[in-house]
Amino acid sequence: MEEEFNYTNPLNLVVAMLIITIGVLGIIYNASIVYIYLKENSEKTAFNLICFCRAISNVIILTIIFVITFFPKTLLGHSPYPPVVESWIINIANTLYLGNEYQIVLVALNRCCALFFPMKYSKIFSILHTTIVLIAIYVYRIGKKIIEWIPQSNKGCHALYSIKNLAWSYDDSEQCDFVDDALDIIFYTFIAMSILNTITFVKILHFYRKRNANQDKETKKRMRKNTIHFLQTMLQDSLYLIDLTFTFRLSSWSDHRVWRYVSGTFIWELLHSTDGFVMVMFNERLSFIKKTIQNSSTIPVIAGPKNLRRGTISASTIPSTK
Q: Is the pTM of this model over 0.90?
Protein backbone atom coordinates (compact mmCIF):
# COMPACT_ATOMS: atom_id res chain seq x y z
CA MET A 1 0.00 0.00 0.00
CA GLU A 2 1.37 3.38 -1.02
CA GLU A 3 2.16 5.71 1.87
CA GLU A 4 -0.14 8.70 2.20
CA PHE A 5 1.29 12.05 3.19
CA ASN A 6 -1.50 13.72 5.15
CA TYR A 7 -2.84 13.80 8.71
CA THR A 8 -2.65 9.98 8.83
CA ASN A 9 1.13 10.25 8.54
CA PRO A 10 2.66 10.96 11.99
CA LEU A 11 5.36 13.26 10.63
CA ASN A 12 2.88 15.26 8.54
CA LEU A 13 0.63 15.66 11.55
CA VAL A 14 3.46 16.86 13.80
CA VAL A 15 4.74 19.24 11.11
CA ALA A 16 1.24 20.63 10.53
CA MET A 17 0.88 21.37 14.26
CA LEU A 18 4.29 23.04 14.34
CA ILE A 19 3.50 25.13 11.28
CA ILE A 20 0.21 26.46 12.67
CA THR A 21 1.61 27.04 16.17
CA ILE A 22 4.73 28.91 15.09
CA GLY A 23 2.76 30.75 12.42
CA VAL A 24 0.04 32.03 14.76
CA LEU A 25 2.56 33.08 17.43
CA GLY A 26 4.62 34.89 14.81
CA ILE A 27 1.57 36.70 13.48
CA ILE A 28 0.69 37.85 17.00
CA TYR A 29 4.23 39.13 17.66
CA ASN A 30 4.51 41.00 14.38
CA ALA A 31 0.93 42.29 14.46
CA SER A 32 1.70 43.80 17.88
CA ILE A 33 4.50 45.87 16.31
CA VAL A 34 2.18 47.00 13.52
CA TYR A 35 -0.55 47.94 16.01
CA ILE A 36 1.76 49.90 18.32
CA TYR A 37 3.29 51.83 15.42
CA LEU A 38 -0.12 52.85 14.10
CA LYS A 39 -1.52 53.70 17.54
CA GLU A 40 1.35 55.55 19.24
CA ASN A 41 2.56 58.86 17.81
CA SER A 42 5.81 58.51 19.73
CA GLU A 43 6.57 55.42 17.63
CA LYS A 44 6.62 57.41 14.38
CA THR A 45 10.38 57.32 13.81
CA ALA A 46 12.47 56.17 10.87
CA PHE A 47 13.85 53.18 12.74
CA ASN A 48 10.40 52.09 13.89
CA LEU A 49 9.01 52.65 10.39
CA ILE A 50 11.49 50.12 9.04
CA CYS A 51 10.50 47.68 11.80
CA PHE A 52 6.84 48.38 10.96
CA CYS A 53 7.33 47.44 7.31
CA ARG A 54 9.39 44.43 8.31
CA ALA A 55 6.61 43.29 10.64
CA ILE A 56 4.01 43.68 7.88
CA SER A 57 6.13 41.53 5.55
CA ASN A 58 6.46 38.92 8.28
CA VAL A 59 2.70 38.86 8.89
CA ILE A 60 1.99 38.44 5.18
CA ILE A 61 4.58 35.67 4.76
CA LEU A 62 3.45 33.77 7.86
CA THR A 63 -0.19 34.07 6.83
CA ILE A 64 -0.18 33.31 3.10
CA ILE A 65 2.62 30.75 3.12
CA PHE A 66 2.49 28.85 6.37
CA VAL A 67 -1.02 29.29 7.79
CA ILE A 68 -3.18 29.13 4.66
CA THR A 69 -0.93 27.18 2.26
CA PHE A 70 1.61 24.87 3.91
CA PHE A 71 -0.56 23.99 6.91
CA PRO A 72 -3.68 22.77 5.05
CA LYS A 73 -1.63 21.04 2.36
CA THR A 74 0.47 19.19 4.95
CA LEU A 75 -2.64 18.17 6.87
CA LEU A 76 -4.94 17.28 3.95
CA GLY A 77 -2.35 15.87 1.58
CA HIS A 78 -3.34 18.21 -1.23
CA SER A 79 -3.32 21.94 -1.89
CA PRO A 80 -6.52 23.96 -1.48
CA TYR A 81 -5.38 26.07 -4.45
CA PRO A 82 -4.55 25.42 -8.11
CA PRO A 83 -0.79 25.06 -8.82
CA VAL A 84 -0.58 28.49 -10.44
CA VAL A 85 -2.07 30.16 -7.35
CA GLU A 86 0.16 28.25 -4.93
CA SER A 87 3.18 29.12 -7.05
CA TRP A 88 2.38 32.82 -7.01
CA ILE A 89 1.83 32.72 -3.24
CA ILE A 90 5.30 31.23 -2.77
CA ASN A 91 6.81 33.81 -5.11
CA ILE A 92 5.12 36.70 -3.32
CA ALA A 93 6.59 35.43 -0.05
CA ASN A 94 10.06 35.12 -1.59
CA THR A 95 9.77 38.65 -2.93
CA LEU A 96 8.92 40.01 0.52
CA TYR A 97 11.74 37.94 2.01
CA LEU A 98 14.27 39.55 -0.33
CA GLY A 99 12.71 42.93 0.43
CA ASN A 100 13.56 42.28 4.06
CA GLU A 101 17.13 41.54 2.95
CA TYR A 102 17.33 45.06 1.51
CA GLN A 103 15.92 46.38 4.79
CA ILE A 104 18.81 44.80 6.66
CA VAL A 105 21.17 47.18 4.86
CA LEU A 106 18.77 50.10 5.41
CA VAL A 107 18.66 49.44 9.16
CA ALA A 108 22.46 49.15 9.33
CA LEU A 109 22.76 52.47 7.48
CA ASN A 110 20.16 53.98 9.82
CA ARG A 111 22.12 53.03 12.95
CA CYS A 112 25.41 54.15 11.44
CA CYS A 113 23.94 57.54 10.52
CA ALA A 114 22.37 57.98 13.97
CA LEU A 115 25.76 57.51 15.65
CA PHE A 116 27.98 59.47 13.28
CA PHE A 117 25.60 62.29 12.28
CA PRO A 118 23.24 62.78 15.23
CA MET A 119 22.50 66.42 14.35
CA LYS A 120 21.61 65.64 10.73
CA TYR A 121 20.01 62.27 11.35
CA SER A 122 16.41 63.51 11.55
CA LYS A 123 16.75 65.19 8.15
CA ILE A 124 18.56 62.34 6.42
CA PHE A 125 16.33 59.63 7.85
CA SER A 126 13.06 61.51 7.96
CA ILE A 127 9.79 59.58 7.79
CA LEU A 128 9.26 60.82 4.22
CA HIS A 129 12.71 59.79 2.99
CA THR A 130 12.50 56.40 4.69
CA THR A 131 9.01 55.79 3.27
CA ILE A 132 10.20 56.58 -0.26
CA VAL A 133 13.13 54.16 0.06
CA LEU A 134 10.92 51.39 1.45
CA ILE A 135 8.33 51.83 -1.30
CA ALA A 136 11.08 51.80 -3.92
CA ILE A 137 12.46 48.54 -2.50
CA TYR A 138 9.16 46.69 -2.72
CA VAL A 139 8.09 48.18 -6.04
CA TYR A 140 11.39 47.07 -7.54
CA ARG A 141 11.24 43.57 -6.07
CA ILE A 142 7.59 42.98 -6.98
CA GLY A 143 8.02 44.38 -10.50
CA LYS A 144 11.12 42.26 -11.09
CA LYS A 145 9.39 39.11 -9.87
CA ILE A 146 6.34 39.68 -12.09
CA ILE A 147 8.53 40.14 -15.17
CA GLU A 148 10.47 36.96 -14.37
CA TRP A 149 7.55 34.74 -13.47
CA ILE A 150 4.88 35.49 -16.07
CA PRO A 151 6.81 33.59 -18.82
CA GLN A 152 7.42 30.66 -16.45
CA SER A 153 3.80 30.56 -15.39
CA ASN A 154 2.66 30.55 -19.02
CA LYS A 155 4.84 27.47 -19.62
CA GLY A 156 3.25 25.68 -16.67
CA CYS A 157 6.38 25.99 -14.53
CA HIS A 158 5.65 26.49 -10.85
CA ALA A 159 7.19 26.61 -7.40
CA LEU A 160 5.25 24.18 -5.23
CA TYR A 161 5.27 22.83 -1.69
CA SER A 162 5.86 19.08 -1.47
CA ILE A 163 3.79 17.15 1.08
CA LYS A 164 6.43 14.41 0.91
CA ASN A 165 9.55 16.55 1.33
CA LEU A 166 7.72 19.11 3.51
CA ALA A 167 9.48 21.96 1.71
CA TRP A 168 8.90 23.96 -1.46
CA SER A 169 10.98 23.72 -4.64
CA TYR A 170 11.05 24.88 -8.26
CA ASP A 171 9.69 22.72 -11.07
CA ASP A 172 12.67 20.89 -12.58
CA SER A 173 11.01 20.08 -15.93
CA GLU A 174 13.07 20.64 -19.08
CA GLN A 175 10.96 23.54 -20.32
CA CYS A 176 11.48 25.44 -17.06
CA ASP A 177 14.45 27.78 -16.77
CA PHE A 178 14.08 29.63 -13.51
CA VAL A 179 16.31 32.61 -12.81
CA ASP A 180 16.75 33.25 -9.10
CA ASP A 181 19.00 36.13 -8.05
CA ALA A 182 18.51 35.46 -4.33
CA LEU A 183 22.12 34.37 -3.78
CA ASP A 184 23.51 37.50 -5.45
CA ILE A 185 21.24 39.75 -3.39
CA ILE A 186 22.12 37.95 -0.19
CA PHE A 187 25.85 38.12 -0.95
CA TYR A 188 25.93 41.87 -1.61
CA THR A 189 23.56 42.79 1.22
CA PHE A 190 25.64 40.70 3.61
CA ILE A 191 28.82 42.55 2.61
CA ALA A 192 27.16 45.97 2.93
CA MET A 193 25.56 45.05 6.26
CA SER A 194 28.84 43.69 7.66
CA ILE A 195 30.77 46.83 6.72
CA LEU A 196 28.17 49.22 8.18
CA ASN A 197 27.69 47.19 11.37
CA THR A 198 31.45 46.95 11.91
CA ILE A 199 31.80 50.72 11.59
CA THR A 200 28.88 51.22 13.99
CA PHE A 201 30.30 48.74 16.49
CA VAL A 202 33.69 50.47 16.46
CA LYS A 203 31.96 53.80 17.10
CA ILE A 204 30.08 52.37 20.08
CA LEU A 205 33.26 50.85 21.53
CA HIS A 206 35.08 54.15 21.08
CA PHE A 207 32.33 56.03 22.90
CA TYR A 208 32.30 53.75 25.93
CA ARG A 209 36.09 53.68 26.16
CA LYS A 210 36.41 57.45 25.95
CA ARG A 211 33.36 58.47 27.94
CA ASN A 212 33.92 60.63 30.99
CA ALA A 213 32.04 62.60 33.61
CA ASN A 214 32.04 65.74 31.47
CA GLN A 215 29.78 64.23 28.83
CA ASP A 216 26.23 65.54 29.11
CA LYS A 217 23.55 63.12 30.23
CA GLU A 218 21.51 63.53 27.07
CA THR A 219 24.41 62.31 24.95
CA LYS A 220 24.88 59.30 27.21
CA LYS A 221 21.19 58.41 27.04
CA ARG A 222 21.12 58.84 23.28
CA MET A 223 24.13 56.56 22.92
CA ARG A 224 22.58 54.00 25.27
CA LYS A 225 19.40 53.97 23.23
CA ASN A 226 21.29 53.70 19.95
CA THR A 227 23.33 50.86 21.40
CA ILE A 228 20.15 48.98 22.29
CA HIS A 229 18.82 49.52 18.76
CA PHE A 230 22.12 48.26 17.37
CA LEU A 231 21.86 45.15 19.53
CA GLN A 232 18.34 44.60 18.21
CA THR A 233 19.49 44.84 14.59
CA MET A 234 22.38 42.44 15.24
CA LEU A 235 20.00 39.86 16.71
CA GLN A 236 17.62 40.22 13.76
CA ASP A 237 20.46 40.02 11.24
CA SER A 238 21.73 36.84 12.89
CA LEU A 239 18.33 35.22 12.27
CA TYR A 240 18.75 35.71 8.53
CA LEU A 241 22.29 34.36 8.64
CA ILE A 242 21.03 31.21 10.37
CA ASP A 243 18.25 30.81 7.80
CA LEU A 244 20.63 31.26 4.89
CA THR A 245 23.10 28.80 6.38
CA PHE A 246 20.45 26.10 6.59
CA THR A 247 18.91 26.89 3.20
CA PHE A 248 22.06 27.05 1.09
CA ARG A 249 24.59 25.00 3.08
CA LEU A 250 23.20 22.58 5.61
CA SER A 251 20.15 21.52 3.55
CA SER A 252 22.36 19.27 1.41
CA TRP A 253 23.43 17.18 4.40
CA SER A 254 20.51 14.78 4.07
CA ASP A 255 17.49 14.00 1.88
CA HIS A 256 15.47 12.68 4.80
CA ARG A 257 12.01 14.18 5.14
CA VAL A 258 12.71 15.48 8.64
CA TRP A 259 15.87 17.29 7.61
CA ARG A 260 14.22 18.74 4.50
CA TYR A 261 11.48 20.14 6.69
CA VAL A 262 13.91 21.53 9.25
CA SER A 263 16.26 23.17 6.73
CA GLY A 264 13.65 24.25 4.19
CA THR A 265 10.49 25.12 6.14
CA PHE A 266 10.96 25.10 9.91
CA ILE A 267 13.93 27.50 9.96
CA TRP A 268 12.24 29.81 7.42
CA GLU A 269 9.04 30.06 9.46
CA LEU A 270 10.94 30.37 12.73
CA LEU A 271 12.91 33.27 11.23
CA HIS A 272 9.82 35.43 10.62
CA SER A 273 8.22 34.46 13.91
CA THR A 274 11.35 35.08 16.00
CA ASP A 275 11.99 38.31 14.09
CA GLY A 276 8.68 39.61 15.41
CA PHE A 277 9.47 38.34 18.91
CA VAL A 278 12.79 40.24 18.93
CA MET A 279 11.03 43.45 17.86
CA VAL A 280 8.47 42.99 20.64
CA MET A 281 11.21 42.44 23.23
CA PHE A 282 12.97 45.66 22.23
CA ASN A 283 9.86 47.78 21.71
CA GLU A 284 9.57 50.34 24.48
CA ARG A 285 5.78 50.04 24.61
CA LEU A 286 5.66 46.27 24.83
CA SER A 287 8.57 44.99 26.89
CA PHE A 288 10.66 45.32 30.01
CA ILE A 289 13.38 47.05 27.98
CA LYS A 290 11.62 50.39 28.43
CA LYS A 291 11.56 49.98 32.21
CA THR A 292 15.22 49.01 32.16
CA ILE A 293 16.13 52.17 30.25
CA GLN A 294 14.04 54.37 32.50
CA ASN A 295 15.28 52.87 35.75
CA SER A 296 18.90 53.20 34.68
CA SER A 297 18.39 56.76 33.44
CA THR A 298 17.09 58.58 36.51
CA ILE A 299 18.22 62.19 36.78
CA PRO A 300 17.63 64.34 39.87
CA VAL A 301 15.63 67.48 39.11
CA ILE A 302 16.22 70.32 41.51
CA ALA A 303 13.98 73.38 41.66
CA GLY A 304 14.76 76.80 43.12
CA PRO A 305 16.30 77.29 46.55
CA LYS A 306 12.93 77.83 48.27
CA ASN A 307 10.92 75.02 46.69
CA LEU A 308 13.49 72.29 46.72
CA ARG A 309 12.18 69.03 45.35
CA ARG A 310 13.43 65.97 43.55
CA GLY A 311 11.96 64.12 40.60
CA THR A 312 12.93 61.95 37.70
CA ILE A 313 13.18 62.31 33.99
CA SER A 314 12.91 59.09 32.04
CA ALA A 315 14.76 58.41 28.81
CA SER A 316 11.46 58.56 26.95
CA THR A 317 11.11 62.28 27.74
CA ILE A 318 14.50 63.15 26.29
CA PRO A 319 14.83 63.76 22.54
CA SER A 320 16.77 61.07 20.74
CA THR A 321 18.24 60.74 17.29
CA LYS A 322 15.79 58.07 16.25
A: no
